[in-house]
Amino acid sequence: MNSFVISSLLPVVLLIAAGYLAGRRRWIGGNAVKDLSNLIFLLLAPALLFRAMSTVHVQELSLKPVAAYFIASGLLFAATMALRGFNRTAAVIALANTYSNTVMIGIVLVDLAYGDAGMVVLLTLISLHSLVLLTSATVVLELAVAREHAAGSGAPARSMGRTVLRALRNAIIHPVPLPIIAGLLFAQTGWTMPEVIDKPIQLLGQAFGPVALVMVGITLALTPIGRHWRGALAQALVKNLLHPLLVAAIGWLLGVRGIPLTVMVVAAALPIGANVFLFSQRYRTAEDLVTASVAVSTVLALGTLTLVMVCVRWLP
Fold first, then answer.
1. 307: exposed, middle or buried (Cβ count in 10 Å: 0-12, 13-18, 19+)
2. β-strand partners of 272
3. In terms of Cα–Cα distance, which of 308, 286, 293, 274 is closest to 104?
4. Are 221 and 275 in contact (CB under 8 A)?
5. Nearest to 279 by CA among 140, 123, 75
6. Using CA atoms, how far apart are residues 140 and 70, in angstroms rounded to an integer?
């Protein structure tokens, strides 16, 4: 196997395995998972994301790779809805097919594999990832709910404009895109962060990678798969293999090459993000299937990411 892939993936695998062991041994119980999640997303991730973007200038950003990612995701989302019908369950499954774990796994992996150049590309995607995909999914889900209400009880539909505005607000005022935008704005001022402030932010950001990956392992240890493993496996194969294949094809057609294309394909090959489970809970549909799919997709990614990262090196 390619030594570059091994050196990039092995630290990720070992940290997830350490978290899995901690979860199985009940060193960290289910009650602590929410607190650890808050620590990661409300403190460590914002520090890392802000500092990473605080020296990046707008002219260094390229939106064409991100456009390729979202076009491919949109096509896959629409195809899923067409196959399964316009309903809440189809919308949640479509989101699972397209929403990657770009933060907890993607940031560490891309930093190890592709360095600063890859991180700028990935963080550009992350700054829009939730905004575009979660807002779009919210609109589709709310339309599906309104359709069900209208068909069932004849009750008045919810205000679509208010729903869209609320979804946009929640996607922007969020601990992931907000520090990216703030860091990018700070970079445009030309100012330099004082050492006494920069050092604590740097230390917090450095803690993000290991803590986030250990948290992934703990979550896997505490997640039941049960009788949904076949459906979860199908979901995982679509997300981990079909999604990156589509991104590679669209990116190639748009003329995206090099590190930008590589990072977008690897980002698409990442396992299903945990936000999909939150949507399944909120809309009370396919909860067990989505929970199992997130777990199976993450475990399967240890193999499929290796395959994708080897294959993507063949792209000119």
1. middle
2. 100
3. 274
4. no
5. 140
6. 16
Cα–Cα distance list, 7 to 14, 102, 302 (Å): 11, 19, 13
CATH code, 259 = 1.20.1530.20
| CB 291, CB 227: distance < 8 Å | no
Q: What is the dihedral of CA 213, 129, 112, 109, to 10 degrees?
A: 40
Amino acid in position 152:
G
CA–CA separation, 244 and 312 (whole Å): 10
Sequence-distant (6+) residues with CB within 8 A of 153 are none
Read off the pTM.
0.84
* pLDDT tens for each residue of 235-275: 999 999 999 999 999 999 999 999 999 999 999 999 999 88
For 44-53, 248-257, 275-284, 301-310, which range has the lowest pLDDT when averaged over its residues?
A: 275-284
pLDDT tens-place string over residues 79-88: 999 999 999 9
CA dihedral for 115, 121, 127, 131, sign (positive or negative): negative
Domain that holds residue 217: 3-312
Closest to 294 measured CA to CA, from 240, 232, 251, 238: 232
- Overall number of domains in the chain: 1
Which single residue is written with the structure tokens 């991730």? 45
**Cβ-proximal residues to 260 (8 Å cutoff; 6+ apart), any chain:** 62, 64, 65, 121, 251
